Automatic annotation (TrEMBL):
Name assigned to this protein: Cell wall-associated polypeptide
InterPro entries linked to this entry: RHS_repeat (IPR031325), T6SS_VgrG/RHS (IPR050708), YD (IPR006530)
Transmembrane region(s): none
Gene3D superfamilies according to UniProt: 3.90.930.1, RHS repeat-associated core
Top-rank taxon, per record: Bacteria
Length: 252
């Protein structure tokens, strides 16, 4: 990995071992202004005089919109409205099967939720939600079904439905097991938030590798398929593009 910085010591460019480059530019106040990814997609941000994010535009290499957010704020600086002009883009999120960062489409549609006196979720689309004495959710929604959740003595999630999780002594998740499929993780614990660097199978053979800059840039699997990740204002995965390099043949 190669990292370069500007005169103000801000991350300017990330080049991975395959030569794929991600570049960052900043405005005169130091706010992130533009991100250009290896697949040619481009994220652009604008701010008001107080440094509050006004627009977040993400476009694919062909110019098509991935997301087009606009924001307004109240007198206290809280976001009062958030509008995405591309509401039908597929939302991506962590899936249960295998790797925790492999994107999968989240279920869309209306959800009806009720809350108890303690302000905890009580029902979800009519399904009862239950908690243990430590406040951990032990039964509740998982996709469209009601599933059970189990925790260890440190209140770490160790099972969700048919998927099991394991952790190291530093509380980093190091494996996911579903049925006979085991995915293990090599983790960087020294970042502000721990980062998955590599996925392996149950025998320790590398299956996927991750690239980071200002957040997760991409993931490459053992077959050479490269995924770039796109986010909303909160850093949640909004969509992904799957590319075959060096041809840059990408699809959502």
């Amino acid at each position: 990995m190669q990292y370069t910085y500007d005169a103000n010591h801000r991350l300017k460019e990330v080049t991975d071992p395959a030569g794929r480059k991600t570049t960052y530019t900043y405005d005169q106040h130091g706010n992130l202004e533009q991100t250009i990814r290896p697949d040619g997609s481009k994220e652009t941000r604008t701010y008001d005089a107080a440094g509050q994010l006004l627009t977040l535009s993400d476009r694919a290499a062909d110019g098509s919109s991935i997301s087009e957010y606009t924001f307004t704020y109240d007198a206290n600086g809280n976001v009062s409205t958030e509008d995405n002009k591309v509401p039908d883009i597929t939302v991506q999120g962590p899936e249960q099967e295998g790797a925790g960062l492999s994107p999968s489409t989240l279920l869309a549609g209306k959800a009806e939720m009720t809350y108890g006196k303690d302000n905890r979720l009580d029902t979800y689309n009519g399904m009862k939600v239950e908690y243990d004495a430590d406040g951990n959710q032990i039964t509740g929604p998982l996709g469209e079904s009601r599933e059970s959740f189990k925790y260890d003595a440190r209140n770490r999630l160790i099972q969700a439905g048919q998927t099991a999780y394991a952790y190291n002594s530093e509380n980093n998740r190091i494996s996911v097991t579903k049925g006979n499929s085991v995915t293990k993780y090599v983790v960087n614990p020294h970042a502000m938030l721990s980062q998955i660097l590599m996925e392996t199978d149950g025998n320790g053979k590398g299956q996927a590798w991750y690239v980071y800059g200002l957040g997760l840039i991409g993931r490459e699997d053992s077959e050479g398929t490269y995924q770039t990740y796109h986010y909303d204002r909160r850093g949640r995965i909004k969509s992904k593009f799957v590319c075959k390099f060096p041809q840059l043949d990408c699809a959502t």
